[in-house]
Automatic annotation (TrEMBL):
Annotated FAD-binding PCMH-type domain residues: 7-179
InterPro entries: FAD-bd_PCMH (IPR016166), FAD-bd_PCMH-like_sf (IPR036318), FAD-bd_PCMH_sub2 (IPR016169), FAD-linked_Oxidoreductases_BP (IPR050432), Oxid_FAD_bind_N (IPR006094)
The protein's name in its UniProt record: FAD-linked oxidase
PANTHER family: CYTOKININ DEHYDROGENASE 6, GULONOLACTONE OXIDASE
Keyword Coiled coil: no
Lineage of source species: Bacteria, Pseudomonadati, Pseudomonadota, Alphaproteobacteria, Hyphomicrobiales
Any one GO molecular-function label of the UniProt entry: FAD binding
Gene3D superfamilies: 3.30.465.10
């Protein structure tokens, strides 16, 4: 598998790549060409937000050193290429855990900041960016800018969730949270339809650190949206030992066709509901299985076949969710497209410091579809339409094909990022969306305070 491929594998992989040290030399020397660079973390973005077809990607993974850690207050400083898995393993013996983790631990620190990732506890902790104390940002003016809520604030706000467009994040300081253990006490509650889920969701958030729902996307009629609500809290008397990331299972080769067809999905959903739904009462689970279940199967994205997969993640405001979320599921059902991974969770009111952060109050629905060409693209456009009409947004770092108009409707403040975008940095996503919306104003002078 190409080292510089996007996770969805529907976008051609990067052809040109340089090391972080080479990019640093270009930037400090003032010789970086316009639109020529983009940091590449570990390629877990699904579309083209981590690609720069017009230029070169910068491999940040060799910058993987944890520089310091304060075991009293949980403040950790690390290079941008450090994996979240390494941060978890380093801090676990001291009783600390990242306050926000996405669905995979195989993301870099710089990538987590650039995408302002969220987890199962947005209602309690907000986004990853809410816990960033500061970072060092190298721009094409040759300077390393220290950015925080009190220093270079415009760059701080633009870089969090800015998809790597403001410069090269070299290192960052983040504040971890103290936990009684890494294990999680989990409670599983089945619900028969979306109406039941919405009746449960707010109370689950109020009572638990973590809450997320799995949806049986193939169920229709009065069972539309049935699923399981997983709620959890760090166990009082669990383990402080980090578990080895990933598992023994893997998809060793690329199947010639997607194996995630409707009969398979129907059987899988039935088995999953039976296995997970029969759990009675709170029970303890390891953090790997609770937070990162798919990390246990290496290269699981190969299951979608050689054409890859599209992921669609939307957020719908609270007042529109009871109508729009069923409409999204019904559209996929009508199109005959089954989603292997269908996740629904509630975002709280904690505001991210990032200008282009995706989370906002409401409900977020994630669907995965094998790439079946025009049929799938038509469905995704319909999902965009429903989302925008409801006043919602489509997640850019999960996207590989949204229109410029959908992006602008989802992020009306996008020009605030463009005013401080470093002229040496560009992504294929930005070229596909923002570049088509009007004159570009990226520059260095606008970032000065």
């Amino acid at each position: 598998m190409n080292r510089f491929q996007s996770f969805g594998r529907v976008i051609p992989p990067a052809v040109k790549a340089i090391t972080a040290s080479e990019a640093i030399a270009l930037l400090k020397g003032g010789t970086a060409r316009p639109d020529s660079l983009l940091a590449y973390g570990n390629g877990r973005s699904y579309g083209d937000s981590c690609q720069n077809a017009a230029g070169t990607v910068v491999d940040m993974r060799p910058m993987g050193k944890i520089r310091s850690f304060n075991a009293e207050n949980g403040l950790l400083e690390a290079d941008a290429g450090v994996m979240l898995a390494d941060i978890i393993a380093y801090a676990a013996p001291f009783g600390f855990f990242p306050p926000v983790v996405p669905g995979t631990q195989f993301v870099t620190l710089g990538g987590a900041i650039a995408n302002d990732v969220h987890g199962k506890n947005h209602h309690r902790r907000g986004t990853f960016g809410c816990h960033v104390e500061s970072f060092a940002l190298l721009r094409s003016d040759g300077r390393v800018h220290t950015c925080s809520e009190t220093q270079n604030t415009r760059l701080f706000w633009a870089t969090i969730g800015g998809m790597g467009l403001t410069g090269l994040i070299l290192s960052a300081s983040i504040r971890l949270m103290r936990v009684p253990s890494l294990d999680v006490t989990e409670t599983v509650t089945p619900f028969r339809n979306l109406a039941e889920y919405f009746d449960l969701a707010e109370a689950a958030d109020a009572a638990n650190e973590y809450a997320v729902a799995w949806i049986d996307q193939l169920a229709g009629g009065r069972n539309l949206g049935r699923g399981l609500l997983f709620a959890g809290n760090h166990a009082d008397h669990g383990s402080h030992a980090a578990q080895k990331p990933g598992g023994r299972l893997s998809v060793p080769f690329q199947p010639p066709l997607t194996v995630l067809n409707r009969p398979f999905l129907k059987a899988f959903n039935a088995a999953y509901r039976w296995k997970k739904g029969r759990a009675s009462g709170p029970h303890m689970v390891g953090y790997q299985g609770f937070f990162f279940p798919l990390d246990g199967v290496r290269d699981w994205n190969r299951l979608y076949g050689p054409a890859g997969l599209f992921q669609h993640q939307s957020v719908i405001p609270d007042e529109a969710a009871r109508e729009a979320v069923p409409a999204l599921l019904a559209a996929a059902h009508r199109a005959g497209q089954g989603s292997f991974l269908t996740v629904l969770k509630r975002f709280g009111a904690i505001r991210s410091p990032g200008i282009l952060s995706f989370p906002r109050p409401g409900y977020t629905l994630t669907l995965d579809f094998p790439n079946r060409g025009g049929k799938t693209l038509a469905l995704l456009a319909e999902l965009d339409r429903i989302t925008v009409a409801a006043g919602g947004a489509v997640n850019p770092y999960k996207d590989a094909r949204m229109s410029a108009e959908t992006f602008a409707a989802s992020f009306p403040d996008w020009r605030r990022l463009e005013t401080v975008r470093d002229p040496a940095f560009l992504s294929s996503f930005w070229a596909r969306t923002a570049y088509r919306l009007g004159p570009q104003r990226g520059g260095l002078a606008e970032a000065a305070e």
